[in-house]
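Dear colleague,

Thank you for sharing your sequence with our group. We've completed the structure prediction you requested, and as agreed, I am returning the results in plain text so they can be pasted directly into your records. Please verify that the sequence below matches your submission; if there's any discrepancy, let me know and we will rerun it promptly.
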Amino acid sequence: MFNRFGMYPLILAILVCAQGSYAANGLPVVRIGIVTDGPLQPQGWGKIIRSKLFFKEILDITRGEFDVRFSKDRVVHGNWSVSGVKKAVDALLANPQVDLVLALGVIATNEVSLRRTLPKPVVAPFAIDRKLQDLPFRNGTSGVRNLNYLTLPHSFERDVKVFKEIILFTRMALFVDKVLIEALPRLRVKAARAAKENGIQLAIIPVGNRIQPALAALPADVETVFVTPLLSLPPSEFDVLVAGLIDRRLPSFSLFGREEVERGLLASASQETNTLRLARRVALNVHRILLGEDAGDLGVTMPRGERLTINMATARAIGSFPSFRVLTEAELLNEEEEQVTRRLSLYTAMREAISVNLDLAAADRRVAAGLGEVGIARSFLLPQVDIGSSASVIDNDRAKGGLGNNPEQAVFATGSLRQLLYSDSAWSNFTVQEKTQESRIAQRQELQLDIVRDAGVAYLNVLRTKTIKKIQKGNLKLTRSNLELARVRESVGAAARDEVFRWESEIAIGRIDVLNAQARQQQAAVALNRILHHPLEEPFVTEEAGVDDPLLMVGQGRLFPYVNNPRNFQVFRDFEVQEGLRVAPELQRLDSLIAAQERTVLNAARAFWAPDLAFQADVSQRYAQGGDGQSAAGGTGQDRTTFNLELGLTFPLFEGGSKNATQIQASQTLRQLQLDREATVERVEERIRLVVFQTGASAPSIRLSREAAEAARKNLELVGDQYSRGAVEIVKVLDSQNAALTANLDAANAIYDFLVDLINIQRATGQFDYFLSKEEQEAWFQRLEAFFEQEGIDTSKERAMSPFK
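Please find the predicted structure tokens below.
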């Protein structure tokens, strides 16, 4: 038995054979005629048609079944006029040398779609708005014999609503190609009605091949401009349009899509036209027609996900910025201002933190102040020299009785020298201050390591949050596509209204997720700027970080032989512990404090028997005198200069038991520091082993999470395709999409988790790869190999098998 279409190919073959239209290869010849609106422009749909992709796809899908032929004498255009397009369509429909017509133009599509009788099959893929154009529609098809048009599910009214979400306005200008206005007499009325229903006053302005008249016709009080496909406008004139709207600071919206937003219009809700997908849909429909299906029974809706695109450079130029709610879902072009010259990488962020961080600068001042403490302690061991001057006045009776030794008025110059010859307390204080200063330096080194780690982790958090925001926005984009698909399914009766509501709910949830992701990204940027001592909201451009960075030792692949099996991994952990304990500033700080306290204990013990020995010299000279009692040359008065020398020995014999108390306190404090060191050794070792263990899990997680993400992606594509064909319910799609989202987030987090773990290892072991020279890195590997040899492990086989050699 023949199926519904079984007889048609046979009849077509008989007719072709009767007309002598079989090719030499035995295949039936099919001659396709093409009508366009006018000479093709290198933009918009003209660019799509000029790509010749439609012809290639038709030839590919019909190869081996039909001999499809395109000929220049069967390609006509309407010279950008309704009457011209009508004549061109009539000519092809009447031409016996044309078996099928492709109407590759907006006006041509409109012309053939409004005809109720077509003598031969016509495929017209450029319908703009089915409702606005009053195109025939029945159960998802045209319902007109021999007619298949294709239209996107979006509409002028929906785009206007989206435009109002971006910019609040009540007066809008609509730029429409003047030929399209002529072709659609009811366009003015229907567009005005749709605008009025949305509270908008609409001014429709026709556009030809020059844009200045249209710009001049803009009402003085217009607030926004809606741009439909301007079919006959040359590219240079489109640039003038963009410049004119920006100069007038008017927000603009493109019906066509992303391409025009990239060229300078503010926004569009249409995705970039998938030329290949459209061409393949046309080719499939042509093939089905040639196999016997009627064009009027083929679907007319071309699913196309809604995708809001906003040019942020244009937004900045006109001073109109969308709300956060809109920005969460939109794809933002030129999001970062071009004048942002500050660039950061993981390396530069960690390097910069050392020189600019305020906490580290404060620590530098503490170290510098500590040098003063050492100097003060040293000063007590060095000579103390004082000089001075004094004046005295006594009564004349004493002056007269002093025999020239005590004049009534006198001025003296004095000087003294004191040198501590021996004091165990002073030497102990000096030693303690020196060791305390060493501990300050070690503490500063500890803080520097923490700051470098914090800067690296903060930078990776910026990258992580940017990636998560991108993933969340991608998921929101997919949800929007599924919403559009649900609307298409609803329009053809394949789905109920609740399915649309469910996807709208998912859109709201997705927007919340994007908002949260964006907030976390901004918080991460603020945290990094704080560490780098920059204005907290100063923008910067980031560079992606990866494990293949040649400045990282792990990026060189040389570690593989030492961690590729449990035994080697155990020895590697032991080596890392040894390295960490060798340079840990926490231990260096405690060692200095212990040395200082040991000297304090020694001083407390010596305090029971060690005296202080000091030398003192004083000199005084009377260099001016007056009044009664002055000594004269040759008189009986004493010499005007006096001096004395002293050698003193002091020993505190009894201080109320404070010596015993001090000795006990010093001894217990020393023991406390020793115990603190033992505990710190354990903590450092624990920290090293924990982060090395964690890296052992996070490194392979990168590959595993990527595999999971790829599997989830394939599953989502499969389920999504089944959903588009009505083979699965919405719940399965939601589950697949959520699984894919989770897998993508895990895959993104895996790489950053590993890099954070790597930074934590370097912090735990007290050295960062970025701060090691090639010679120092080579020395590290030599110590590693020597440690393995000491443990009796030969890694030569592993090195030979390494995939990184």
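Summary note from our side: The chain has a mean pLDDT of 85.

Kind regards,
the structure core
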